[in-house]
Write a structure and sequence with these properties.
single chain, five-stranded mixed sheet, four-stranded antiparallel sheet, 9 strands, 26% helix
């Protein structure tokens, strides 16, 4: 199933303010165009570390219960707009095997001002870790 997108991008009703993708595709690091009124973009890349529990790993196998994960991502998008005002956010989380030193998640937030973009990006990361059912299984180095 490598290279195949597992879930289509989810979009909120207000025209692509929230896009989420869970897939085995590598993380895209290129920025999209800014909309009128946007002055800042914060992009967070989270990479697989080479150590887990003090042991060397070759990567992490990510899995998710897709229907629940999609529901939780959508709820986060709605809450994010309500709690932080209008902004755009794009989240991609890798599923399947992700090798050490490769990114497993990207969160891009676009807002009018930089300070709010940083704050909102951090909020999404914390909420994803806390609420979205994505599991990781470290694959340890045999040597």
């Amino acid at each position: 199933m490598a290279g195949k997108q597992l879930t289509p991008p989810s979009q909120m009703a207000n025209d692509k303010l929230f896009i989420i993708r869970m897939s085995e595709e590598p993380i895209e690091t290129l920025s999209r165009r800014f909309a009128d009124g946007e002055g800042a973009e914060v992009q967070f890349l989270g990479a697989v570390r080479g150590l887990e529990e003090g042991r060397i790993i070759i990567g992490i196998e990510y899995s998710a219960y897709a229907p629940m994960a999609e529901k939780m991502f959508t709820e986060l998008g709605t809450r994010g707009q309500q709690e932080h005002g209008e902004h755009r956010v794009e989240i991609q989380h890798r599923l399947g095997f992700v090798a050490a030193c490769e990114p497993s998640i990207v969160i891009r937030v676009k807002t009018k001002h930089s300070a709010e973009a940083f704050e909102i990006c951090r909020w999404y990361l914390k909420e994803i870790k806390k609420h979205v059912p994505i599991w990781k299984k470290p694959i340890f180095n045999a040597g």
